Amino acid sequence: GNSVTQMEGPVTLSEEAFLTINCTYTATGYPSLFWYVQYPGEGLQLLLKATKADDKGSNKGFEATYRKETTSFHLEKGSVQVSDSAVYFCALSLQGAQKLVFGQGTRLTINP
Amino acid sequence: GAGVSQSPSNKVTEKGKDVELRCDPISGHTALYWYRQSLGQGLEFLIYFQGNSAPDKSGLPSDRFSAERTGGSVSTLTIQRTQQEDSAVYLCASSQDRVVYEQYFGPGTRLTVT
């Protein structure tokens, strides 16, 4: 079946640290890949996306590259801020399937 | 107008009772989705509407769960004879037509079954 596996949290970092949240997937066919973020008290929102192999999605200083050979879509940011504290979800969708398949979520806390 | 809204924001019910959860999508969004977010299960897809029809109900966990959408707008998720394992946050999302990744999520309804 189709699934997404994220590194388990919670993750706690100091401000300005480098962030990596690992995400790997299993899919039949060629999925599109996404990172969603849920800030405290808010709804899920799309952070970035990549729709084909080797694409790089980026937004708000975050980046993720679609790696078909390793079936991965790791989220990175060079220097995190306190305001990045949130829960991050990796997700995929398959062409023709109108739904998102989510990973378990990773809670990130950034300390000043 | 505003984003996706859901009501109630919190619902506490006794085991065995029926509950209805409501979702108001963004105006003009033809696609509507329900997901469930629970401890240990993460975020699970429940059902997808295109207009008033539901071409994908594959995520509904049992026949106690049903959903409808009227006027291509408001949707109601109904859970009959609630069980404790139904306790979760129920999220609704909407999108324009078939742009799957551009799903806009509501704040969710937290359901607690006692």
Query: Structural class per helix/strand content of chain A?
Result: mainly beta
Strand content of chain A: over 45%
Total helix count of chain A? Answer: 0
Please give the share of residues in helix of chain A: under 10%
Mean pLDDT of chain B: 92
Shape, principal axes of CA atoms of chain A: globular
According to DSSP, the number of beta strands of chain B is 11
SSE blueprint and pairings:
The complex is a heterodimer of chains A (112) and B (114).
Chain A: E1 3-6, E2 11-14, E3 19-21, E4 23-26, E5 32-38, E6 45-50, E7 56-59, E8 62-65, E9 75-77, E10 86-93, E11 101-102, E12 106-111
Parallel strand pairs in A: 2-12
Antiparallel strand pairs in A: 1-4, 3-9, 5-6, 5-10, 7-8, 8-9, 10-11, 10-12
Chain B: E1 5-7, E2 10-13, E3 19-24, E4 31-38, E5 42-50, E6 53-56, E7 65-69, E8 75-79, E9 88-95, E10 104-105, E11 109-113
Parallel strand pairs in B: 2-11
Antiparallel strand pairs in B: 1-3, 3-8, 4-5, 4-9, 5-6, 7-8, 9-10, 9-11
